[in-house]
Every structure is written in structure tokens, then in C-alpha cells.
Amino acid sequence: MKILPFKIPKSENSGLIYQEDNEIIFYDKLHQHDEIQISFIKKGSGTLLVVDRFYNYTKNDIFVIGSSIPHIFKSEKNTSEPSSMLSLFFTKTSFGADFFNLSEFEEIRSFFEKSEKGFQITSNQKKIKRLFLQLKQATKMNRFLLFLQLLKLISSSKQHSLSTFNFTKKYTDIEGKRMRSVFEYTIKNAHLSIGLKEISEIASMTKNAFCKYFKKRTNKTYIRFLTELRIENSCKLLHKTKELSINEIAFHVGFTNISNFNRQFKKIKKSTPTAYRKNLFG
Q1: Is 0.70 topped by the overall pTM?
Q2: Among 36, 91, 31, 27, CA closest to 66
Q3: Burial class (CB in 10 A: 0-12, 13-18, 19+), 72
Q4: 71-75 vs 53-57, strand pairing mode
Q5: Helix (H) or strand (E) holding 140
Q6: What are the residues whose beta carbons fall under 8 Å from the beta carbon of 179, sequence distance 6 or more?
Q7: Edge-to-edge strand ranges of the sheet holding 71-75
Q8: Backbone phi, then psi, for 41, in 5-degree steps?
Q9: Using CA atoms, how far apart are residues 112 and 92, in angstroms rounded to an integer?
Q10: pLDDT < 70 regions, the chain
């Protein structure tokens, strides 16, 4: 199944689509699709952008991306190791308009409500992993039965919401290209100085128009968005190395003032960078 920016065309007459991505770099264009997506990271690491927030993902992580939620799985740079992600795509009406409204599915109804913001699964990962690994060799009938088991298990698992608000808007092609250009430029250049005038030009808008446009579509200012990306990048470095000092990490991810870095880190992560690192390595 080929994923196009913001659209996933059905490649077969099937209500449930199974996909494997085995690449050095995952599809890294901002996109949204009608289908709900359940993804298991079999191998690899990188950054996940969901509407208005960034997350670092790694091996064995499991995510649910709701219908029409703009997102990017941005694989780690400078690696020769392939990434691997197993995914299921479906809609609430894939098997009929009233299928999931049947009383038999009462215990998984919360899945669809919570998927509207997207979520990461934080318990039962090993059980979910075992089911995912059976999907490839399963017949279509058995794959459907495994899918129902996954929905039941996910619905009873602990979860962490990915987005801060429900996103139901579908971008036009023009809007999609504009937002994709903004996000791609930001992700690529977050370690550099990016001003509002500069990013507004990337969006082909005036500064004032861009600020209103971005806030309306992400529920936050561009500066806040950029700051959160830099903090996530700093967390990645804190995870990966003890060699760099806190000051070096701050400047490496784009902060020019260590006091501001510490302040923003604590505001977003509810911890100082030093305490965060200590908690990682003891």
C-alpha cells in the first residue's frame, strides 16, 4: 500500500489493511488519512510528530494514530540499520456502518473515543507484540480475529494521550503542502536560529498571517512548537550519551541561553535536565 501525503488509497477490497515498513528511513512526509492506524515499532528509533506534539520513539513502542490526525514518523538520521514498523489500518465503518456499535463490542468502545487524540500504549506491550508478529503469516480470516484480539487488549491497556486536542480537520492539498514544508524545515533546522520572518517565507505568508494560521491548526504558537521540538531533541541526546555536558546539549539543539534551556526543559518535562539525566543513568 502506497502512502501519499494526507491520503491512504485502498489497494484492495479489504476493510483491514496490514502493512510492513522495512526501510532505513520511514515515510517522513507529514500526512493524514481516514484510517485509524495501530503501529508497532519492531526496530528503529526516531521522532514522532502528532499534530502539535513531538515524541521520541524506539523499539517495541506501540502507537494508535486516529483518523485524520496529521503525523510523521521521522527515523533517526545517520544510521545504516533499517527500521521496521508493522501497522494495521482501518476505519470505524470498515466492516459496516453499525458493526462496532453492536453490544458485543461495548468493552472496546473507548478505543475509538481515545483514538481521536491518538495514544501510546504503556502496558501489555509484550502481549500486543506477540499478536502483531502473527499478522504477517495469518490468513485474512485469522488476521481479522487477531485484529479483534488486539482491539480488546489495547482497550484494557494503560495509555498516554499523544495530542492535546481533537483534530478533525482535513487539510486541502495546498494546506497540506504548506504545513508539510513548515514541519520539514523546522525538523531539519531546529538546531539553528529560526525566526518568524524566515518560517513565514517558507509558508509563503506574511508573518502575522502565518502566526494566526499556525496557531489555529496546531493549538499553539510556532515558537512554542519549535521549543518543544528542541527539548525532545535534547532528551534524545541525554538518553544517548553521557559525554556531552548539559550546556553542550543545550547549544547543540538550538538554545543560545542555558538559563532559558533549563527553564523551558523544566516547564515541559517537569524536571531539570540534570535530574532527568540522573534518573536515566543513576
Answers
A1: yes
A2: 36
A3: buried
A4: unpaired
A5: helix 140-155
A6: 30, 70, 171, 217
A7: 53-57, 46-50, 71-75
A8: -80, 100
A9: 8
A10: 1-13, 78-79, 165-171, 282
